[in-house]
Amino acid sequence: MPFPYKKMTEEDFAYLRSVTAPERVWVGDEIAREYYHDEMPEYGVFPPELYVEVLDKQEVSTIMKYAWEQNIPVVVRGAGTGLAGGANCKYGGILLSVMKMNKMISLDKANMTMTVQPGMLLTEVAAAAAAEGLFYPPDPGEKTASIGGNVITNAGGMRAVRYGLTRDFVRCIEAVLPDGEIVQFSSNVVKNTTGYDVKDLVIGSEGTLCILTEVTLKLMPAPKFTRTLVMPFENLESCIDMVPRLLQMAAVPTAIEFLERELIDIVERNLHKLLPVKEGDAVLIVMYDAGSEQELLSACTEASDAALEAGAIDVYIADTPERIASVWSVRSAILEGMKAESVAQEECDVVVPRAKIAEYVRLAKGIGAKYGIRVEPCGHAGDGNIHTEMLRDASMSDEDWIKGTRACLTELYGVSKRFGGQLSGEHGIGNGRLEYLKPFVGDRMYKLYQSIKLAFDEKLILNPGKIITFEE
After folding, report:
1. How far is CA 274 from the centre of its chain?
2. Most buried residue, 82, 225, 267, 428, by most Cβ within 10 Å?
3. How confident is the model at residue 472 (pLDDT cuts 50, 70, 90)?
4. Contact 133, 127 (CB under 8 A)
């Protein structure tokens, strides 16, 4: 095993400046503190010894060859919007930013694909596709995330109900392995059963297996019409009971989200973003896309009629860009609202069968109450991915908060496993969920994870101490 890693010296710093550029290398106290953590500093604030911004795959390859030879750990950083403590340097070493690798390489209208560098933002990818009348569907909550970060965490988002996850839109990947070799996973083809599907293994690997340098993404024809329905219900149970009915209809919804009134109030109170629906203790937000106005009208009419029959108080239709934006801005502001409402937050993003959502939410709130912690679940009703937020009141001591959240998480993951769910739907394991993964998946599966890591990175230099650990 490679522990301890090499402590970097002036000789190392000089070499990395020589193979990149001095103005793109920062050392020690020169490194901005914002690069010590991702969006959840609760999961670790660790300074790198050197921070470098790379411009191309050759620089990445050269740096990795040197790090491999010298036994220096390397962590890759995109936009830093992760929520699992995945982009911090637990063991010092090199923090390698790919945010200057932000170009579109090509857009192939015949194959309906786009090849981009990993530092391109999700918003930029979507805009480039739209400029050609095409559509990149994955829509995670954080629009300023890098596309490389989306791929390496297999980001989901609200449109996953109809279109799927990031994994469903990745055709091929060019990447640098931990020893510096440049490789290609799959190619720009629709089908591929040539050997093991390593591409899909790399997607969601949280930067522990390789460094993405180019990604080819599948595009779709842009939907011409869209509409959002807001369905208020008297309680969460009847709200969630509506979900399977929507999924059994002829038109598949693009997104199905649920919010309880408590969360809506938090956003309105702290951020002054108002949901134009005041009734009900629980609200279902449903989006439809369509290729024709008639198709859209038919889908919305069928869904509205079924909701009213199922006990919805009413169905409100957002049919202009402004009205649609006002609805979704409330849903997108949940995390920001909760940060404004509390002095600290903890969260998990379990996935459970859709029929178990209401029961999970009820149990989650009871678990939080047992430990004196306010629990606010919300999320993707269409795929059972529930973001379970824990909020810390100012009066709670550090000791009670730490003990309480750990106890809550242990029980919440236990509920998810009992329901046939999973530990994480889209945020990943990173550094924040390390202690919970092995008990959840079991010894045999954990050893398989370790074997995969060693097959790519026997020196354990790439994003070490994330997803899995080894004896040090």
Report:
1. 26
2. 82
3. low
4. no
And the tokens for 165? 């996850």
Count Cα atoms within 13 angstroms, Cβ side, for 200.
10
User: pLDDT, tens digit, for every residue of 396-411?
Assistant: 999 999 999 999 999 9
Residue 59's alpha-carbon distances to 52, 78, 181, 210, 212, in angstroms, are 10, 16, 12, 14, 13
Give Cα 449 to chain centroid, integer Å.
20
Record the tokens describing residue 74, joined without a space: 């390397």
Predicted confidence at residue 335, as pLDDT, reads 85
My answer on whether omega of the bond before 22 falls inside 30° of 0, hence cis, is no
Cβ neighbours for 375, distance < 8 A, ≥ 6 positions apart: 364, 365, 367, 368, 369, 388, 389, 390, 391, 408
- Angstrom distance (rounded) from CA 464 to CA 450: 12
255-284 residue pLDDT tens: 999 999 999 999 999 999 999 999 999 999
* pLDDT at 166 (0 to 100): 96
- Taking the C-alpha atoms of residue 424 and residue 437, their distance in angstroms, rounded to an integer, is 10
Give the number of C-alpha atoms closer than 13 A to the C-alpha of residue 249, restricted to the C-beta side.
23
The CA distance from 407 to 107, in Å, is 49
Average pLDDT over residues 316-344: 92
